[in-house]
Protein backbone atom coordinates (compact mmCIF):
# COMPACT_ATOMS: atom_id res chain seq x y z
CA UNK A 1 0.00 0.00 0.00
CA UNK A 2 1.33 3.38 -0.87
CA UNK A 3 0.06 6.79 -0.12
CA UNK A 4 0.13 10.32 -1.32
CA UNK A 5 2.09 12.49 1.02
CA UNK A 6 0.91 16.02 1.34
CA UNK A 7 3.63 18.32 2.54
CA UNK A 8 3.00 21.85 3.66
CA UNK A 9 3.68 23.38 0.27
CA UNK A 10 1.21 21.11 -1.51
CA UNK A 11 -1.31 21.73 1.21
CA UNK A 12 -1.02 25.50 0.87
CA UNK A 13 -1.16 25.33 -2.92
CA UNK A 14 -4.30 23.21 -2.79
CA UNK A 15 -5.90 25.47 -0.22
CA UNK A 16 -4.97 28.54 -2.25
CA UNK A 17 -6.51 27.18 -5.43
CA UNK A 18 -9.64 26.17 -3.55
CA UNK A 19 -10.05 29.61 -2.01
CA UNK A 20 -9.37 31.32 -5.33
CA UNK A 21 -12.52 29.74 -6.79
CA UNK A 22 -14.65 31.66 -4.31
CA UNK A 23 -14.78 34.96 -6.28
CA UNK A 24 -16.63 32.98 -8.98
CA UNK A 25 -19.57 33.63 -6.74
CA UNK A 26 -19.59 37.16 -8.17
CA UNK A 27 -22.91 37.03 -9.93
CA UNK A 28 -23.60 40.47 -11.28
CA UNK A 29 -23.02 38.96 -14.72
CA UNK A 30 -26.25 37.00 -14.28
CA UNK A 31 -28.37 40.06 -13.55
CA UNK A 32 -28.95 40.94 -17.21
CA UNK A 33 -30.28 37.49 -18.02
CA UNK A 34 -32.65 37.70 -15.10
CA UNK A 35 -34.15 41.14 -15.72
CA UNK A 36 -37.92 41.12 -15.83
CA UNK A 37 -38.46 40.56 -19.57
CA UNK A 38 -35.37 38.49 -20.33
CA UNK A 39 -35.67 35.17 -22.13
CA UNK A 40 -33.79 33.22 -19.48
CA UNK A 41 -36.03 34.48 -16.71
CA UNK A 42 -39.15 33.67 -18.72
CA UNK A 43 -37.87 30.19 -19.43
CA UNK A 44 -37.15 29.59 -15.75
CA UNK A 45 -40.55 30.99 -14.76
CA UNK A 46 -42.17 28.13 -16.67
CA UNK A 47 -41.27 25.98 -13.65
CA UNK A 48 -43.95 27.94 -11.77
CA UNK A 49 -46.53 26.69 -14.24
CA UNK A 50 -45.34 23.17 -13.50
CA UNK A 51 -45.69 23.80 -9.76
CA UNK A 52 -49.24 25.07 -10.30
CA UNK A 53 -50.29 22.00 -12.28
CA UNK A 54 -48.60 19.52 -9.95
CA UNK A 55 -50.05 21.14 -6.83
CA UNK A 56 -53.50 21.31 -8.39
CA UNK A 57 -53.13 17.58 -9.07
CA UNK A 58 -51.86 16.74 -5.58
CA UNK A 59 -53.97 19.09 -3.47
CA UNK A 60 -57.62 18.11 -3.33
CA UNK A 61 -60.06 20.82 -4.37
CA UNK A 62 -61.57 21.03 -0.89
CA UNK A 63 -58.61 20.01 1.31
CA UNK A 64 -58.39 22.55 4.09
CA UNK A 65 -55.53 24.69 5.26
CA UNK A 66 -54.60 23.89 8.85
CA UNK A 67 -56.77 25.59 11.45
CA UNK A 68 -55.41 26.46 14.88
CA UNK A 69 -56.75 26.86 18.39
CA UNK A 70 -57.50 30.17 20.15
CA UNK A 71 -54.36 29.74 22.28
CA UNK A 72 -52.20 30.00 19.16
CA UNK A 73 -53.31 33.61 18.65
CA UNK A 74 -50.40 35.21 20.48
CA UNK A 75 -50.20 38.57 18.70
CA UNK A 76 -52.11 40.90 16.42
CA UNK A 77 -52.08 40.18 12.70
CA UNK A 78 -48.96 41.87 11.35
CA UNK A 79 -50.08 44.42 8.73
CA UNK A 80 -48.13 44.52 5.50
CA UNK A 81 -48.22 46.37 2.18
CA UNK A 82 -50.44 49.41 2.29
CA UNK A 83 -51.74 49.93 5.81
CA UNK A 84 -53.33 53.38 5.68
CA UNK A 85 -54.74 54.19 2.23
CA UNK A 86 -54.81 57.90 1.47
CA UNK A 87 -57.04 57.69 -1.61
CA UNK A 88 -59.90 60.20 -1.33
CA UNK A 89 -62.82 57.83 -1.95
CA UNK A 90 -61.47 55.44 0.64
CA UNK A 91 -60.76 58.25 3.12
CA UNK A 92 -64.37 59.47 2.85
CA UNK A 93 -65.73 55.96 3.47
CA UNK A 94 -63.40 55.43 6.41
CA UNK A 95 -64.40 58.75 7.98
CA UNK A 96 -68.03 57.58 7.86
CA UNK A 97 -67.10 54.25 9.48
CA UNK A 98 -67.75 52.57 6.13
CA UNK A 99 -71.50 53.24 6.41
CA UNK A 100 -71.66 54.03 2.70
CA UNK A 101 -69.51 51.07 1.62
CA UNK A 102 -70.91 48.76 -1.02
CA UNK A 103 -69.23 45.74 -2.57
CA UNK A 104 -69.91 45.66 -6.29
CA UNK A 105 -70.07 42.20 -7.88
CA UNK A 106 -70.08 42.15 -11.68
CA UNK A 107 -68.52 40.78 -14.82
CA UNK A 108 -69.58 37.31 -15.97
CA UNK A 109 -72.55 36.98 -13.60
CA UNK A 110 -76.30 36.62 -14.14
CA UNK A 111 -77.21 39.13 -11.40
CA UNK A 112 -74.76 41.95 -10.65
CA UNK A 113 -74.82 42.79 -6.94
CA UNK A 114 -74.18 45.80 -4.78
CA UNK A 115 -73.87 44.66 -1.17
CA UNK A 116 -73.62 46.80 1.97
CA UNK A 117 -71.53 45.65 4.93
CA UNK A 118 -74.73 44.77 6.84
CA UNK A 119 -75.94 42.67 3.95
CA UNK A 120 -72.59 40.86 3.86
CA UNK A 121 -72.71 40.28 7.62
CA UNK A 122 -76.21 38.80 7.25
CA UNK A 123 -75.04 36.24 4.74
CA UNK A 124 -73.68 32.86 5.89
CA UNK A 125 -70.47 33.39 7.81
CA UNK A 126 -67.38 31.39 8.58
CA UNK A 127 -64.76 31.90 11.27
CA UNK A 128 -61.34 30.27 10.95
CA UNK A 129 -58.05 30.51 12.82
CA UNK A 130 -55.38 30.19 10.18
CA UNK A 131 -51.76 30.96 9.52
CA UNK A 132 -50.95 33.81 7.17
CA UNK A 133 -47.75 33.09 5.23
CA UNK A 134 -46.14 36.13 3.68
CA UNK A 135 -44.06 35.71 0.52
CA UNK A 136 -41.25 37.37 2.48
CA UNK A 137 -41.06 34.34 4.74
CA UNK A 138 -42.85 35.27 7.97
CA UNK A 139 -46.05 33.72 9.34
CA UNK A 140 -48.76 34.95 11.69
CA UNK A 141 -51.78 33.16 13.16
CA UNK A 142 -55.10 35.02 13.44
CA UNK A 143 -58.85 34.48 13.54
CA UNK A 144 -60.75 35.61 10.48
CA UNK A 145 -64.50 36.02 10.12
CA UNK A 146 -66.30 36.65 6.87
CA UNK A 147 -68.70 35.48 4.22
CA UNK A 148 -67.61 32.56 2.04
CA UNK A 149 -66.85 33.89 -1.43
CA UNK A 150 -68.78 30.92 -2.85
CA UNK A 151 -71.97 32.26 -1.24
CA UNK A 152 -71.51 35.64 -2.92
CA UNK A 153 -70.76 33.95 -6.26
CA UNK A 154 -73.90 31.82 -5.96
CA UNK A 155 -76.02 34.84 -5.18
CA UNK A 156 -74.65 36.66 -8.22
CA UNK A 157 -74.87 33.56 -10.40
CA UNK A 158 -71.47 32.93 -11.94
CA UNK A 159 -71.67 32.26 -15.67
CA UNK A 160 -70.11 29.06 -16.94
CA UNK A 161 -67.36 30.85 -18.86
CA UNK A 162 -66.11 32.62 -15.72
CA UNK A 163 -62.60 31.33 -14.98
CA UNK A 164 -61.26 33.94 -12.59
CA UNK A 165 -62.41 36.16 -9.78
CA UNK A 166 -60.72 39.56 -9.95
CA UNK A 167 -60.59 41.79 -6.87
CA UNK A 168 -60.30 45.53 -7.40
CA UNK A 169 -59.13 47.48 -4.39
CA UNK A 170 -59.31 51.00 -2.98
CA UNK A 171 -55.63 51.29 -2.16
CA UNK A 172 -53.05 52.45 -4.63
CA UNK A 173 -49.37 51.63 -4.55
CA UNK A 174 -46.71 54.16 -5.44
CA UNK A 175 -44.43 52.79 -8.10
CA UNK A 176 -42.19 55.83 -8.33
CA UNK A 177 -41.87 56.96 -11.96
CA UNK A 178 -45.02 55.24 -13.18
CA UNK A 179 -47.04 56.86 -10.39
CA UNK A 180 -49.93 55.40 -8.44
CA UNK A 181 -51.28 52.00 -9.42
CA UNK A 182 -54.47 50.50 -8.00
CA UNK A 183 -53.99 47.20 -6.20
CA UNK A 184 -55.80 44.26 -7.75
CA UNK A 185 -55.59 40.50 -7.50
CA UNK A 186 -57.17 37.41 -9.04
CA UNK A 187 -57.73 33.76 -8.18
CA UNK A 188 -59.16 30.88 -10.17
CA UNK A 189 -62.64 29.44 -9.58
CA UNK A 190 -61.24 26.44 -7.70
CA UNK A 191 -59.71 28.67 -5.03
CA UNK A 192 -62.68 31.05 -5.18
CA UNK A 193 -65.08 28.23 -4.27
CA UNK A 194 -62.81 26.72 -1.60
CA UNK A 195 -64.62 26.56 1.77
CA UNK A 196 -61.93 28.64 3.50
CA UNK A 197 -61.92 31.39 0.88
CA UNK A 198 -63.82 34.18 2.57
CA UNK A 199 -64.40 37.90 2.28
CA UNK A 200 -63.34 38.79 5.80
CA UNK A 201 -64.87 41.67 7.78
CA UNK A 202 -63.67 40.49 11.20
CA UNK A 203 -60.24 39.87 12.70
CA UNK A 204 -59.58 38.27 16.11
CA UNK A 205 -63.18 38.87 17.23
CA UNK A 206 -63.32 42.57 16.27
CA UNK A 207 -64.17 44.48 13.10
CA UNK A 208 -61.35 44.30 10.56
CA UNK A 209 -58.92 47.18 11.31
CA UNK A 210 -57.87 49.64 8.60
CA UNK A 211 -54.27 48.40 8.73
CA UNK A 212 -55.48 44.88 7.87
CA UNK A 213 -57.77 45.89 5.00
CA UNK A 214 -61.05 47.34 6.37
CA UNK A 215 -63.82 47.07 5.58
CA UNK A 216 -63.38 43.87 3.53
CA UNK A 217 -60.46 41.72 2.49
CA UNK A 218 -59.90 38.34 0.88
CA UNK A 219 -58.57 35.24 2.62
CA UNK A 220 -57.23 32.49 0.33
CA UNK A 221 -55.71 30.21 2.92
CA UNK A 222 -53.80 27.85 0.64
CA UNK A 223 -51.79 30.63 -0.96
CA UNK A 224 -49.34 33.32 0.10
CA UNK A 225 -50.32 36.66 1.57
CA UNK A 226 -50.10 38.75 -1.57
CA UNK A 227 -53.07 36.89 -3.06
CA UNK A 228 -55.25 38.12 -0.20
CA UNK A 229 -56.26 41.56 -1.41
CA UNK A 230 -57.18 44.16 1.21
CA UNK A 231 -59.63 47.11 0.88
CA UNK A 232 -61.74 45.21 -1.67
CA UNK A 233 -63.91 47.57 -3.71
CA UNK A 234 -65.40 45.29 -6.33
CA UNK A 235 -65.36 41.72 -7.59
CA UNK A 236 -65.40 40.89 -11.27
CA UNK A 237 -65.76 37.46 -12.79
CA UNK A 238 -63.71 37.13 -15.94
CA UNK A 239 -62.66 34.58 -18.51
CA UNK A 240 -59.33 36.28 -19.17
CA UNK A 241 -56.89 38.29 -17.07
CA UNK A 242 -55.39 40.25 -19.97
CA UNK A 243 -57.68 43.32 -19.62
CA UNK A 244 -56.60 43.94 -16.01
CA UNK A 245 -53.49 45.90 -15.10
CA UNK A 246 -50.62 44.67 -17.21
CA UNK A 247 -52.37 41.37 -17.73
CA UNK A 248 -50.51 39.20 -15.26
CA UNK A 249 -53.39 38.81 -12.82
CA UNK A 250 -52.38 41.11 -9.99
CA UNK A 251 -50.39 44.06 -8.71
CA UNK A 252 -47.43 41.98 -7.54
CA UNK A 253 -47.72 39.67 -10.54
CA UNK A 254 -47.26 42.71 -12.79
CA UNK A 255 -44.01 43.30 -10.90
CA UNK A 256 -42.72 39.79 -11.64
CA UNK A 257 -44.26 37.65 -8.88
CA UNK A 258 -45.86 34.37 -9.81
CA UNK A 259 -49.63 34.34 -10.22
CA UNK A 260 -50.05 31.01 -8.45
CA UNK A 261 -48.77 31.54 -4.92
CA UNK A 262 -49.29 28.08 -3.44
CA UNK A 263 -45.59 27.78 -2.63
CA UNK B 1 17.45 16.39 -11.31
CA UNK B 2 16.26 15.52 -7.85
CA UNK B 3 12.65 15.67 -8.97
CA UNK B 4 13.31 13.23 -11.80
CA UNK B 5 14.79 10.74 -9.38
CA UNK B 6 11.89 11.28 -7.01
CA UNK B 7 9.46 10.61 -9.79
CA UNK B 8 11.25 7.43 -10.77
CA UNK B 9 11.19 6.21 -7.17
CA UNK B 10 7.57 7.14 -6.94
CA UNK B 11 6.71 5.16 -10.05
CA UNK B 12 8.47 2.12 -8.72
CA UNK B 13 6.72 2.47 -5.39
CA UNK B 14 3.36 2.72 -6.92
CA UNK B 15 1.79 0.34 -9.32
CA UNK B 16 -0.63 2.57 -11.09
CA UNK B 17 -3.81 1.13 -12.37
CA UNK B 18 -6.65 3.02 -13.89
CA UNK B 19 -10.15 1.80 -13.34
CA UNK B 20 -13.60 3.03 -14.24
CA UNK B 21 -14.84 4.38 -10.97
CA UNK B 22 -17.90 6.56 -11.53
CA UNK B 23 -20.77 5.43 -13.69
CA UNK B 24 -22.38 7.77 -16.19
CA UNK B 25 -25.41 8.40 -13.97
CA UNK B 26 -23.20 9.35 -11.03
CA UNK B 27 -21.18 11.76 -13.14
CA UNK B 28 -24.13 13.47 -14.84
CA UNK B 29 -26.12 13.87 -11.64
CA UNK B 30 -23.02 15.12 -9.81
CA UNK B 31 -22.56 18.03 -12.20
CA UNK B 32 -26.26 18.91 -12.40
CA UNK B 33 -26.32 19.00 -8.62
CA UNK B 34 -23.24 21.22 -8.57
CA UNK B 35 -24.91 23.78 -10.84
CA UNK B 36 -28.35 23.51 -9.21
CA UNK B 37 -27.02 23.82 -5.66
CA UNK B 38 -24.97 26.86 -6.64
CA UNK B 39 -28.06 28.70 -7.89
CA UNK B 40 -30.30 27.35 -5.13
CA UNK B 41 -27.92 28.74 -2.52
CA UNK B 42 -27.57 32.20 -4.02
CA UNK B 43 -31.26 32.62 -4.88
CA UNK B 44 -32.12 31.23 -1.45
CA UNK B 45 -30.06 33.96 0.19
CA UNK B 46 -31.97 36.50 -1.93
CA UNK B 47 -35.24 35.05 -0.59
CA UNK B 48 -33.91 35.04 2.98
CA UNK B 49 -33.01 38.73 2.63
CA UNK B 50 -36.73 39.55 2.25
CA UNK B 51 -37.24 38.61 5.90
CA UNK B 52 -33.85 37.92 7.46
CA UNK B 53 -35.00 36.21 10.66
CA UNK B 54 -35.46 32.59 11.63
CA UNK B 55 -37.93 31.32 14.22
CA UNK B 56 -39.05 28.18 16.03
CA UNK B 57 -42.72 27.16 15.75
CA UNK B 58 -45.65 27.80 13.43
CA UNK B 59 -45.40 31.57 13.34
CA UNK B 60 -42.94 34.44 13.55
CA UNK B 61 -42.96 36.23 16.89
CA UNK B 62 -43.50 39.95 16.55
CA UNK B 63 -45.13 40.45 19.96
CA UNK B 64 -43.14 37.63 21.53
CA UNK B 65 -39.66 36.26 20.99
CA UNK B 66 -39.16 32.90 19.29
CA UNK B 67 -36.40 33.95 16.94
CA UNK B 68 -33.10 32.08 16.80
CA UNK B 69 -31.33 34.22 14.23
CA UNK B 70 -31.81 37.69 12.84
CA UNK B 71 -29.59 39.80 10.62
CA UNK B 72 -30.25 43.51 10.30
CA UNK B 73 -28.82 46.98 10.05
CA UNK B 74 -28.97 49.19 13.13
CA UNK B 75 -27.91 52.75 13.89
CA UNK B 76 -24.69 52.60 15.91
CA UNK B 77 -23.65 54.92 18.73
CA UNK B 78 -21.65 57.08 16.29
CA UNK B 79 -24.66 57.47 13.98
CA UNK B 80 -23.35 55.08 11.34
CA UNK B 81 -25.25 51.99 10.28
CA UNK B 82 -23.89 48.73 11.66
CA UNK B 83 -24.64 45.16 10.72
CA UNK B 84 -26.10 43.34 13.71
CA UNK B 85 -26.52 39.58 13.70
CA UNK B 86 -28.36 38.09 16.65
CA UNK B 87 -27.84 34.37 17.20
CA UNK B 88 -29.77 32.76 20.08
CA UNK B 89 -30.07 36.19 21.67
CA UNK B 90 -26.36 36.97 21.41
CA UNK B 91 -25.57 40.12 19.38
CA UNK B 92 -22.63 39.93 16.97
CA UNK B 93 -21.26 42.89 15.02
CA UNK B 94 -21.10 41.76 11.39
CA UNK B 95 -20.69 45.14 9.67
CA UNK B 96 -19.20 44.71 6.22
CA UNK B 97 -20.53 41.21 5.65
CA UNK B 98 -24.00 40.71 7.16
CA UNK B 99 -26.58 43.45 7.66
CA UNK B 100 -24.45 46.22 6.22
CA UNK B 101 -22.10 45.51 3.32
CA UNK B 102 -20.68 46.89 0.11
CA UNK B 103 -18.13 49.66 -0.49
CA UNK B 104 -18.06 52.68 1.83
CA UNK B 105 -19.57 55.04 -0.75
CA UNK B 106 -22.50 52.78 -1.63
CA UNK B 107 -23.48 50.77 1.41
CA UNK B 108 -26.13 48.08 1.05
CA UNK B 109 -28.43 47.53 4.01
CA UNK B 110 -29.43 43.92 3.59
CA UNK B 111 -28.76 40.67 5.42
CA UNK B 112 -26.56 38.86 2.90
CA UNK B 113 -24.33 41.01 0.69
CA UNK B 114 -25.18 41.62 -2.97
CA UNK B 115 -22.29 39.45 -4.19
CA UNK B 116 -23.87 36.43 -2.49
CA UNK B 117 -27.35 36.79 -3.99
CA UNK B 118 -28.98 36.07 -7.35
CA UNK B 119 -29.86 38.53 -8.72
CA UNK B 120 -27.37 40.84 -7.05
CA UNK B 121 -29.97 43.62 -6.56
CA UNK B 122 -32.97 43.23 -4.29
CA UNK B 123 -35.59 41.26 -6.25
CA UNK B 124 -37.52 38.64 -4.30
CA UNK B 125 -39.71 37.74 -7.30
CA UNK B 126 -36.74 36.82 -9.49
CA UNK B 127 -35.01 35.07 -6.60
CA UNK B 128 -38.08 32.87 -6.30
CA UNK B 129 -38.18 32.20 -10.06
CA UNK B 130 -34.55 31.05 -10.00
CA UNK B 131 -34.98 29.08 -6.76
CA UNK B 132 -38.02 27.10 -7.89
CA UNK B 133 -36.60 26.40 -11.34
CA UNK B 134 -33.49 24.85 -9.83
CA UNK B 135 -35.53 23.17 -7.10
CA UNK B 136 -37.38 21.23 -9.82
CA UNK B 137 -34.09 20.42 -11.56
CA UNK B 138 -32.61 19.33 -8.26
CA UNK B 139 -35.60 17.15 -7.35
CA UNK B 140 -35.74 15.54 -10.80
CA UNK B 141 -32.01 14.82 -10.64
CA UNK B 142 -32.35 13.31 -7.19
CA UNK B 143 -35.24 11.09 -8.27
CA UNK B 144 -33.25 9.90 -11.31
CA UNK B 145 -30.14 9.27 -9.24
CA UNK B 146 -32.07 7.37 -6.59
CA UNK B 147 -33.85 5.17 -9.13
CA UNK B 148 -30.65 4.48 -11.08
CA UNK B 149 -28.67 3.77 -7.92
CA UNK B 150 -31.26 1.30 -6.69
CA UNK B 151 -31.27 -0.53 -10.01
CA UNK B 152 -27.50 -0.67 -10.52
CA UNK B 153 -26.76 -1.45 -6.88
CA UNK B 154 -24.66 1.73 -6.55
CA UNK B 155 -26.65 2.71 -3.48
CA UNK B 156 -26.11 -0.58 -1.64
CA UNK B 157 -22.56 -1.16 -2.88
CA UNK B 158 -20.99 2.30 -2.69
CA UNK B 159 -23.14 4.58 -0.53
CA UNK B 160 -24.70 2.66 2.33
CA UNK B 161 -21.93 2.13 4.91
CA UNK B 162 -21.34 -1.44 6.03
CA UNK B 163 -20.70 -2.50 9.61
CA UNK B 164 -16.98 -2.72 8.89
CA UNK B 165 -17.05 0.82 7.39
CA UNK B 166 -18.50 2.08 10.65
CA UNK B 167 -16.02 0.07 12.72
CA UNK B 168 -13.16 1.39 10.64
CA UNK B 169 -14.34 4.97 10.95
CA UNK B 170 -11.92 6.10 13.71
CA UNK B 171 -8.98 4.78 11.72
CA UNK B 172 -10.32 6.42 8.57
CA UNK B 173 -10.66 9.76 10.35
CA UNK B 174 -7.09 9.55 11.62
CA UNK B 175 -5.79 8.72 8.13
CA UNK B 176 -7.64 11.72 6.68
CA UNK B 177 -6.37 14.05 9.39
CA UNK B 178 -2.83 12.97 8.54
CA UNK B 179 -3.55 13.60 4.85
CA UNK B 180 -2.95 9.99 3.95
CA UNK B 181 -5.33 9.08 1.21
CA UNK B 182 -5.71 5.58 -0.04
CA UNK B 183 -6.94 5.55 -3.60
CA UNK B 184 -8.94 2.39 -3.77
CA UNK B 185 -11.63 0.89 -5.91
CA UNK B 186 -14.40 1.84 -3.59
CA UNK B 187 -15.14 4.75 -1.31
CA UNK B 188 -13.60 4.53 2.13
CA UNK B 189 -15.77 4.47 5.24
CA UNK B 190 -15.62 8.21 5.80
CA UNK B 191 -16.57 8.91 2.20
CA UNK B 192 -19.47 6.46 2.31
CA UNK B 193 -20.84 7.92 5.51
CA UNK B 194 -20.56 11.53 4.37
CA UNK B 195 -22.13 10.75 0.99
CA UNK B 196 -24.89 8.78 2.68
CA UNK B 197 -25.59 11.67 5.05
CA UNK B 198 -25.71 14.21 2.20
CA UNK B 199 -27.58 12.12 -0.38
CA UNK B 200 -29.98 10.23 1.87
CA UNK B 201 -30.22 12.72 4.74
CA UNK B 202 -29.64 16.33 3.81
CA UNK B 203 -31.04 16.26 0.26
CA UNK B 204 -34.42 14.71 1.25
CA UNK B 205 -34.54 16.99 4.30
CA UNK B 206 -34.09 19.98 2.01
CA UNK B 207 -37.00 18.89 -0.24
CA UNK B 208 -39.29 18.19 2.69
CA UNK B 209 -38.58 21.41 4.59
CA UNK B 210 -38.98 23.30 1.32
CA UNK B 211 -42.36 21.71 0.70
CA UNK B 212 -43.36 22.42 4.29
CA UNK B 213 -43.12 26.13 3.52
CA UNK B 214 -45.74 25.75 0.77
CA UNK B 215 -49.23 26.67 2.05
CA UNK B 216 -50.85 24.48 -0.61
CA UNK B 217 -48.75 21.45 0.37
CA UNK B 218 -49.68 22.08 4.01
CA UNK B 219 -53.30 21.52 3.02
CA UNK B 220 -52.42 18.39 1.02
CA UNK B 221 -49.99 16.87 3.54
CA UNK B 222 -50.81 18.36 6.97
CA UNK B 223 -48.40 16.05 8.81
CA UNK B 224 -45.41 17.73 7.15
CA UNK B 225 -45.55 20.77 9.42
CA UNK B 226 -46.19 18.46 12.37
CA UNK B 227 -43.02 16.42 11.90
CA UNK B 228 -40.88 19.54 11.56
CA UNK B 229 -42.53 21.35 14.46
CA UNK B 230 -44.15 24.15 12.49
CA UNK B 231 -43.65 26.09 9.29
CA UNK B 232 -41.13 28.51 10.77
CA UNK B 233 -39.11 25.66 12.30
CA UNK B 234 -39.09 24.03 8.85
CA UNK B 235 -37.76 27.30 7.41
CA UNK B 236 -35.04 27.34 10.08
CA UNK B 237 -34.12 23.70 9.34
CA UNK B 238 -34.01 24.53 5.61
CA UNK B 239 -31.46 27.24 6.44
CA UNK B 240 -29.41 25.00 8.74
CA UNK B 241 -29.29 22.23 6.11
CA UNK B 242 -28.09 24.86 3.64
CA UNK B 243 -25.21 25.70 5.99
CA UNK B 244 -24.38 22.00 6.41
CA UNK B 245 -24.30 21.60 2.62
CA UNK B 246 -22.03 24.64 2.31
CA UNK B 247 -19.77 23.02 4.93
CA UNK B 248 -19.82 19.74 3.01
CA UNK B 249 -18.96 21.62 -0.19
CA UNK B 250 -15.97 23.33 1.43
CA UNK B 251 -14.58 20.03 2.75
CA UNK B 252 -15.43 18.24 -0.51
CA UNK B 253 -13.48 20.77 -2.60
CA UNK B 254 -10.62 20.75 -0.13
CA UNK B 255 -10.41 16.96 -0.28
CA UNK B 256 -10.39 17.02 -4.08
CA UNK B 257 -7.36 19.28 -4.04
CA UNK B 258 -5.68 17.44 -1.18
CA UNK B 259 -6.19 13.98 -2.71
CA UNK B 260 -5.03 14.95 -6.19
CA UNK B 261 -7.25 17.29 -8.16
CA UNK B 262 -6.39 15.89 -11.60
CA UNK B 263 -7.17 12.29 -10.72
CA UNK B 264 -10.33 13.26 -8.84
CA UNK B 265 -11.54 15.66 -11.50
CA UNK B 266 -10.83 13.20 -14.33
CA UNK B 267 -12.77 10.49 -12.56
CA UNK B 268 -15.75 12.78 -12.11
CA UNK B 269 -15.67 13.81 -15.78
CA UNK B 270 -14.56 10.67 -17.65
CA UNK B 271 -15.10 8.06 -14.94
CA UNK B 272 -11.45 6.94 -15.11
CA UNK B 273 -9.66 6.88 -11.78
CA UNK B 274 -6.13 5.91 -10.90
CA UNK B 275 -5.93 3.60 -7.94
CA UNK B 276 -3.04 2.37 -5.83
CA UNK B 277 -1.73 -1.12 -6.48
CA UNK B 278 -2.47 -3.56 -9.22
CA UNK B 279 -5.99 -4.44 -10.14
CA UNK B 280 -6.86 -8.02 -9.46
CA UNK B 281 -8.14 -9.73 -12.54
CA UNK B 282 -11.85 -10.24 -12.43
CA UNK B 283 -12.34 -8.56 -9.11
CA UNK B 284 -15.73 -6.92 -9.05
CA UNK B 285 -15.80 -3.17 -8.63
CA UNK B 286 -16.74 -2.65 -5.07
UniProtKB/TrEMBL annotation, chain A:
It holds the Pfam family Oxidored_molyb. PROSITE patterns: TAT (PS51318). Gene3D superfamilies: Oxidoreductase, molybdopterin-binding domain. Residues 99-239 form the Oxidoreductase molybdopterin-binding domain. CDD domains: bact_SO_family_Moco. PANTHER family: BLL0505 PROTEIN, PROTEIN-METHIONINE-SULFOXIDE REDUCTASE. This is Molybdopterin-binding protein.
